[in-house]
Amino acid sequence: MIEVENLTKRYSGVTALDGISFHVGKGEIVGFLGPNGAGKSTTMRILSGFMPPSSGRASVAGYDVGRESLRAREHVGYMPENVPLYLEMRVTEYLRYRAALKGVRGRKVTERVNDVLELCNLTEVARKLIGKLSKGYRQRVGLADAMVHEPDLLILDEPTIGLDPNQIRQVRDLIRNLARHHTILLSSHILSEVEQTCHRVIIINRGKIEALDTPQNLRQRLRGGGEIRLEIHAANSAKAADELKRIAGIQSVAGDIDGDWHVFHLQTEAGSDPRPAIFHHCVKQGWQVRELTQARTSLEDVFVEMTQPE
Amino acid sequence: MRKLFILFGRELAQYFRSPLAYTVLCFFLVLTGFNFQFGVSSLNLQPLTTTIVEAFFNTVFFWYPFVLVFPLITMRIFSEEYKMGTIEPLMTAPVRDWQVVLAKYLGALVFYIVLWLPSLLYFVIFQNTTEFRAAEAVGAYLGAYAMLLLIGMFYTALGCLASALTQNQIVAAIISFCLVCLMFFMSLISFMTPQISPFLRALTSYLSPIEHMAEFSQGIFDSRPVVYYLSLTIFTLYLTLQVFQSRRWRTA
Hints:
The structure holds two protein chains of two kinds.
Chain A lengths: L1 E10 L2 E11 L4 E5 L6 H8 L7 E6 L2 E2 L4 H6 L1 E4 L11 H11 L5 H13 L15 H13 L5 E5 L7 H14 L4 E6 L2 H7 L2 E6 L2 E6 L1 H9 L3 E7 L3 H9 L4 E9 L2 E8 L6 H11 L2 E8 L3 H9 L3
Parallel strand pairs in A: 3-8, 3-9, 6-7, 7-8
Antiparallel strand pairs in A: 1-2, 1-4, 4-5, 9-10, 11-13, 11-14, 12-13
Helix pairs in contact in A: 3-4, 4-5, 8-11
Chain B lengths: L1 H16 L1 H27 L6 H6 L2 H15 L1 H9 L2 H6 L4 H33 L8 H28 L3 H17 L3 H4 L5 H9 L2 H8 L6 H28 L2
Helix pairs in contact in B: 1-7, 2-4, 2-7, 4-7, 4-8, 4-9, 5-8, 7-8, 7-13, 8-9, 8-12, 8-13
């Protein structure tokens, strides 16, 4: 759905994008992560046809964004950062205008506008002036606008910025629902957000792609494997540590003491989950178990690790 | 063509969504009404040498609001979109750059025409309440309004250019006011410096909107001003398109 090859964008003296390449398949939700000024918005603006790249190639839905810009734009629904809207227009009026402008014709306009009003929960404010709406509603008007012409691809720049937790949850659910019919590229600062909604994540920093993978793989890549926390009551902690180390899939064992309890941090190999084996061993040895959990590396760690200036 | 029409419709409607349009309309009605009253009373005092149409379009009270109105109606058309960021959703819709520029221009031009509509009524009332004719012939009417349109076309284009240059509406208004005044007062150079060479005097009088209006409101048709205003309008719109495009290529 998106093909980007060696895309570069230079503003007077500043290289905002430095030869990035990636592709996004149909039906995927891809998250764009990066610190401010990393080039997220620039990439999205190029893909949405707002501005041309300095060099390189980008195409959406099979159309080159430079040479077949109009065609490409017909297949993209774009919601810019901070959702600029015409504040003097009413919600329905605005959406009808946008639908017509994007090539929806005749009776289909009313149909599409009603669809997106319902989908984005805007029916109750349909007749209000956009300028009188709260931030959360405006965000949804922006989303409704982005998908009013049934685009194949939705590009959403920071769709949840500035919303309260309830609104964030609503928008996130909405995006998940949209994924059934659209391919989605979204950018965000909120990592848990991306982790929960996206199939793949692109981490971008200073105009370069640092990583492109699924959230699970990114997490694994950082720590190699995972970490398991085990709290037991055993007679001899040194002996217990020795035995645990021999269980398949465990790389190293570090111990700690919390009162009568021994707390072990077990590093596991990538792709293995030795928790059942650990449990069986504990039962066999007669150790009391208080906790056996897999600690999750959050995407936040990956993000910080990859985008920190050296 | 459909896209152009949709864009144009929004641009024109936009005027009537904001208080600006009503303020400008009001201001304009008061000033033209005063100008008309001035014309009628001066015809009352002196022996009749000109018609009311000629008197109406050739006074200081006509030209003042005339040059002021262009910055007011054009200052927001691009600047506001830059400032609010609405240029982004606009230009990521499948529309061409020239369609946007032309739609905005036509929106402003039609609003300008709307401003002048009430003035038509003045002459109808005049003709019905006095036994004088408002103009010598239909040609004088047509001439005056055609010149109003021609000058309006050019000055509106200048306003568009100014608005495309900046995201600050006040700056846009000042630039367009300067451009309009430059074009307008150029013709007054010969009044201000009487020693000016005959060539410059002739040149500035050729380019003078005051001269053009004086001629056309008498019903005299001259093709030179027509070509002058049309070609400058097209040139200014072309410049506007270039500025509009280059701004988007550069902005971060």
